[in-house]
Design a protein that fits this description.
Elements (H helix, E strand, L loop, with lengths): L1 H15 L26 H6 L6 H17 L6 H18 L9 H31 L6 H12 L6 H22 L8 H14 L5 H25 L4 H30 L3 H11 L21 H11 L6 H25 L6 H9 L8 H19 L6 H5 L2 E4 L2 H4 L5 E2 L3 E4 L8 H10 L2 H5 L2 H4 L4 H8 L12 H17 L6 H25 L5 H12 L3 H12 L7 H19 L7 H10 L5 H8 L28
Parallel strand pairs: 1-3
Antiparallel strand pairs: 2-3
């Protein structure tokens, strides 16, 4: 421990003593001047803004879906599954009755978007059905418990004695299943103990770590639903409490023990990690454990069919292998440019050594917020100077900054953004190794290429515009639109000389390589061709990640917080927008500002539909013809002296 502390202090002090470092930072930002008049738009332009004939339909769909989500609040219960499938299939059937040709252009776009959304909703229900079949041997009681909440939500008069019998019966099932996975109790005779172990192993359900982990997560969710059901009656119905309190308490304890046994004995999570995760995430009886921030990374691959369904939803006519080939090509460009920057810094082709030197240029603890503020204002000024996109005065005024907790940094080791930018940097509770990795992974040159990704004109401006234009389309949110746009801006600024120094170019290329690697490791994982541990090593080897940051990145990708294609959406969405920029701006059909404003003001949708909307491509109710965007990509721009 002392050695690590010495290293940390030594590196910090060495950095602070580096001559001329201040010249590498952007100039300190001046306080923003608030022009109240400029922050209020001309209302005549809003009145004249064209709407969609189908906007009221989508608004009604969204409101009805929200109502059903509130009503059927026991996720994956028998009635919830049945009702949500009926809702989606009926809405899709009713949508087909709409006269597509009579709609205006925005209305036809919305028709395709809604139909695509409903089709994917049904595909996801099918996927959940397949997953349920895989866990039924571990959770044969799930529907019985979830149905308790269904009955309550129907306002059916509850029968306390019947409810108590259900809980007692399920408790026996839970305990019987749990002991199958636990070591046999020691007996006086070695032979009988061995026989008992053999019997247990023979009768225990044979499942993978993935299925066992999913079942344990489902147990946490079921336990939460049962607790919600129990608390509704307990105390308010004295007869219920008299009959049910004791069976409920035994069941709650049995489910906790069973979930822990599955995680420890089948998934392979160490007991001490389970205790630590439970203490961090539990908020009372029945609370779900949530995504673990320690222990092995498991994930839940969706397979080839799942990827095909999700790619169809994104209107991407490529196979996963074709997309990985695109990623490999982009990585090759970044690697060549990385070596070029390394040579400028005197490291020859040893780009990893050059990157290590860049990682050590972090600011002292406590100064990161100042750096982020200055980088944000620098980026806004750069966009102003070139008139590339509209950043309204209010969008410059309303963003904020918050710090990420140490535990959250284990799954988000860099930035998060939107309404505010969430900054990762060390805190006193971290170990010395964790502090050093956070410092190095969030150095000024890495941050130079990501602050605008999170703020303006990235995620913050996206959210600002989404709240003001075609708001009904927010249900069609896709990472190919929101993350793709932010990544597009990273590539756009590379093309236009924003990263002048070799250190800043290494920072930008780190992220560009990272986004290529995300396509490869995420698709490979879902195809069953790469494990999470292999994905961590892949990031360390190909992008020179700090190992702790690589683990956080992979954990974040596969802990269920993000959709399966989310990580691929960054670069693939960015490349789609680059191809569309070539088609519309390089050809002089649109100006830079008109193009970028139109993408933002159209709100969220697959980029193929952005293309149809801006290029005025005709399409049927089935959507536009497949767009092989990679065939029309401009070549990446090599760095030259500018």
């Amino acid at each position: 421990m002392h050695r690590h502390r010495t290293l940390l202090v030594g590196v910090v002090c060495g950095f602070l003593a580096t001559p001329g470092y201040a010249q590498k930072l952007p100039p300190a930002a001046q306080p923003i001047v608030i022009d109240v008049a400029a922050s209020v738009p001309g209302l005549a332009t809003l009145v004249a803004h064209g709407g969609s004939d189908l906007a009221p339909v989508i608004e009604r769909y969204t409101a009805d879906q929200q109502s059903l989500n509130r009503r059927y609040d026991a996720a994956d219960s028998p009635e919830q599954r049945q009702r949500m499938r009926a809702f989606a299939t009926t809405w899709r059937a009713r949508l087909s009755d709409v006269d597509f040709d009579a709609l205006n252009t925005e209305g036809r776009i919305d028709y395709v978007l809604l139909d695509n959304h409903l089709r994917h909703q049904i595909a996801e229900l099918d996927r959940q059905d397949r997953k349920r079949v895989e866990t039924v041997a571990l959770l044969p009681f799930a529907d019985d418990l979830l149905a308790l909440q269904d009955v309550r939500r129907r306002l059916t008069t509850m029968n306390p004695t019947s409810s108590a019998r259900i809980l007692s019966r399920v408790t026996k099932q839970v305990d019987s299943l749990r002991v199958l996975f636990e070591p046999a109790p020691a007996t006086s005779g070695t032979k009988s103990a061995s026989a008992d172990t053999t019997t247990r192993k023979a009768t225990a359900p044979k499942v993978s770590r993935t299925v066992a982990n999913r079942a344990a997560d489902n147990l946490d969710q079921i336990r939460g639903v049962v607790t919600q059901w129990y608390r509704y009656y307990d105390g308010y119905d004295p007869v219920f409490s008299w009959w049910v309190r004791s069976p409920y308490t035994r069941l709650d304890s049995a489910m906790q023990r069973y979930a822990r046994t599955l995680r420890e004995r089948v998934v392979g999570i160490p007991a001490q990690v389970l205790v630590a995760n439970a203490s961090r995430s539990s908020t009372g009886p029945g609370a779900g454990a949530g995504p673990a921030s320690d222990g092995p990374i498991i994930g839940d691959p969706i397979g080839e069919q799942g990827l095909a369904d999700d790619l169809a939803h994104e209107m991407i006519p490529y196979t996963p292998r074709e997309l990985m080939v695109i990623a490999e090509r982009e990585y090759a460009f970044s690697l060549a440019e990385m070596k070029k920057a390394a040579r400028e810094l005197g490291f020859g082709d040893d780009w990893k050594a050059a990157m290590e030197s860049v990682k050590n240029t972090y600011v002292e603890p406590g100064r990161q917020p100042d750096l982020i503020r200055d980088l944000a204002r620098q980026a806004e000024a750069y966009f102003d100077a070139h008139d590339w996109v509209t950043i309204p005065p209010l969008a410059r005024e309303d963003w904020g900054m918050e710090m990420l907790s140490p535990d959250r940094q284990k799954v988000s080791p860099f930035f998060l953004g939107g309404q505010s930018i969430l900054v990762a940097y060390p805190t006193p509770e971290m170990t010395d190794d964790e502090k050093l990795m956070s410092l190095r992974g969030n150095n000024p040159h890495f941050s130079h290429a990501t602050v605008f990704h999170e703020l303006n004109p990235g995620h913050h401006l996206q959210g600002f515009m989404q709240a003001r234009y075609h708001q009904h389309r927010r249900i069609f949110a896709t990472p190919f639109w929101n993350e793709g746009q932010s990544l597009y801006w990273e590539m756009f600024l590379w093309d236009h000389g924003f990263h002048a120094s070799p250190e800043d170019r290494i920072g930008a290329l780190f992220w560009r390589m990272h986004r290529s690697a995300r396509i490869i490791f995420s698709l490979s994982f879902h195809l069953g061709k790469m494990t999470p541990d292999q994905a961590v090593q892949f990031l360390v080897d190909t992008v020179n990640f700090e190992r702790a940051n690589a683990e956080g990145e992979v954990r974040r990708s596969f802990n269920g917080s993000y959709s399966p294609l989310y990580q691929a959406g960054y670069m693939l969405g960015g490349l789609q927008l680059r191809a569309l920029h070539t088609e519309l701006v390089d050809s002089k059909i649109m100006t830079e500002r008109a193009f970028h404003d139109a993408v933002l003001q159209g709100n969220a949708m697959p980029i193929a539909m952005v293309r149809a909307r801006l290029a005025k491509i005709s399409f049927s109710r089935a959507g536009p013809a497949p767009w092989r965007f990679a065939d029309h990509l401009p070549p990446p721009v090599p760095w030259t002296v500018r």
